[in-house]
Amino acid sequence: MENFIKELPKAELHLHIEGTFEPELLFKIAQRNKIAIPFKTVEELRKAYNFDCLQDFLNIYYQGANVLQTEQDFYDLTYAYFEKCKMQNIKHTEIMFDPQTHTERGISFKTVINGISRACEDAKANFGISSFLIMSYLRHMTEEEAFDTLKQSLAFKDKIKAVGLDSSEKGNPPSKFKNVYKASIKEGYIPLAHAGEEGDADYIWEAIDILKIKRIDHGNNALQDPKLVQEIIKRDIALTVCPLSNKALQVVPDLKNHPLKKMMELGLKPTINSDDPAYFGGQINQNYIEIQKALNLTKRDLYALASNSFQYSLLDENEKIKQLQNLTGYFQTH
Ligand code: ADE
Ligand code: ZN
Hints:
With 334 residues, the chain is α/β, with parallel strands linked by helices. The protein has one domain (2-333): TIM Barrel (Alpha-Beta Barrel), CATH 3.20.20.140. It has 17 helices and nine strands. The strands form two sheets. The protein has a five-stranded parallel sheet with strand order 1-2-3-4-5, sandwiched between helices. A four-stranded parallel sheet has the order 6-7-8-9. Helix 5 (71-88) runs parallel beside helix 7 (109-127), helix 8 packs parallel to helix 9 and helix 16 runs antiparallel to helix 17. The longest helix is centred in the middle third of the chain and has 19 residues, at 109-127. The model has no long low-confidence stretch (mean pLDDT 98). The structure holds adenine and zinc ion (ZN).
C-alpha cells in the first residue's frame, strides 16, 4: 500500500510555502542573513513544533518566516519544496504564499514573488512539475490591508492565479473580506479560502455565499450542517483536507476519528494535502499513508482522492484530462 501511494500521481492543492521551511534550511538562511533566532540547534527548533491549536502554530510559523529576506531566500525555500514534490510524485501543485507576512517587515512584494516564481519556472523545466500561485490574505489583519496587498499584486498579475484567506480563523469571519474578494474576482483572481478548520459551519456558508469561493481549504466542520453538505455537493466545490495538520493542531487529535471517509460517503469531493509539512510531521505521501491506515482506505479510495486532486485543480480542461488519464493508467496496472 505504501508503494502504491508513493508512486500514485497526484496534485497538491493546499500548501503554504512558508510552511515548508525545514529547520535545516531555516538555520542556513538565518546564518546567511545574520539574523539571530531563539533556538540553538535544529533539534531544539524541531522540539518546539508541538502545538495545542492553530494560533499556537501560527506564532512559531510567522517567527520562522522572519528570516526570509532576499529573492534568493524565497527561491531556495520554494525550490526545496519542489525537490520534495519530485520525491512524492506530485505532478502539479498550487502554492499559497502570504505576502503580508513579508511586506509587513519591509520586504517588497516583488522580492517575494520573483523568488517564488523563478523557482516555479525552474521546477517546470527541471522536473516537469506544473504550478500555480495563490496569494493569501491574512485574516487577522484588516480588509484595508488586504486591499493594499491586492493593489501591490497587480503589477505581477500574470504570476498569480487565485486568492486565498488564511491565519487565525476564529473571530475573523469570511464576511470581513467581502469587498476585497469582490475586487479580487474583478481583477481575474479565482477566489479560495480556509474555512471550517477551527471555525464553525456558518463560516463555510459565508465563504461560499459571500466570498463566492471555488474550493474550500479544510472544510472539516461542514459536517456539522447537513444542509451545507448538500449545498457544497450541489455547487461541486472540493475540500482540501490536511490530515496531519488536523492531528498536529488538535482539530482531529486521533486520525481514527477523521471525517475524510464520511466526506467521501456523503458525496463530497475531498483531496489530501500537507498544509505546512515542515511543521506537521510529513509531506503529502505521509498524509496519504497515515490516513489510509487510520481509516482503512482501499486503493480505489486513494485513486478517487488523487482523481479529485486533478479534477478540482485550477488546471485547464486539456491538462486535467492528460493528468487523469495518466492516473487512471497507473490505477489500472496496480
Ligand atoms: N497558515 C498556514 N497554515 C494555516 C492553516 N492550517 N490554517 C490557517 N492559516 C494557516
Ligand atoms: Zn492551510
